[in-house]
Write a structure and sequence with these properties.
Shape: elongated
Protein name: Leucine rich repeat containing 72
CATH topology of the largest domain: Leucine-rich repeat, LRR (right-handed beta-alpha superhelix)
Biased composition (Low complexity): 12-21
Order of helices and strands: HEEEEHEHEEHHHEHE
Region (Disordered): 1-21
Number of strands: 9
Organism: Cnephaeus nilssonii
CATH class of the largest domain: Alpha Beta
Mean pLDDT: 76
Oligomer: single chain
CATH architecture of the largest domain: Alpha-Beta Horseshoe
Pfam family, one: LRR_9
Radius of gyration: 35 Å
Strand order of the largest sheet: 1-2-3-4-5-6-7
Low-confidence stretches: 1-20, 200-219
Number of helices: 7
Amino acid sequence: MTWDPNHRPRSSRLSSSPARAPGRALEISQRAIEDQLKICGHKRDVDVFELFLSQKELTDVIDLSRFRKLKYLWLHHNKLHEITFLTRNYCLTELYLNNNAIIEIKGLHYLPSLHILLLHHNELTNIDATVKELKGMLNLKTLSLYQNPFCQYNLYRLYIIYHLPGVELLDRNQVTEKERRSMITIFNHKKAHIVQSIAFRGKADASWNPRSPFKQKQANTVPKGFVLGNNVDKIVFDDPEDAVFVRSMKRSVMTFTSLNWNTVPKREEKYLEDKGTKPAQMLTITLR
């Protein structure tokens, strides 16, 4: 076997090929951006408000921080794996990243103004990391995450609603009040317990089990055929004192205010130097 001066070990050949791939990918994205700028007629970066870079076979994108006023960015139907090119685009409000191969979304927390985010049809597997990255987006209202691996989690939708309460449209479906109540019962047992106790006028019970919530006790009512003094149905109380209290709370409140003559100093006391006099006080009586 003769020695070949051009022969390189297998390991060196494999390590050199990935080094060229990122540079090539960045050149492709640079060319795509320049083409878009020519089509739109933009000569200054500050004039760029939107970029349409979908279906360009992009695997990576150059840093877009030069476009400080960029508001709309279309990158769907590409081959992106991560998002590291949006570090100073604070004005971005709509971002379309669906139909890619994204495995993590680190870098999105730099976008506080984001209002619409589409991430469906990707390869996101860590739902906790995804939620953590999106928690700081207080303006996020529309979010799509369906057709990702973590969507197989049976409580995925309620989990997202619980951790991102500002989202109003999730996976093309409006977030309902019923879903918001359900996610509190499932993911925040303590808060659900308090809500239950307040709703049913009861004290919080430490032994309450969220899987078997207690039910409101039905009030005993007089049959509809039974006629009372004012010809309306009344609630029958087990304790007469409760009935008296409820009736008293429906009465009007009367308030009387007068001068408390016990605090008014006498004529002799006004001129006594060794005894300090206090101002007269008002007396208020409230009756119901």
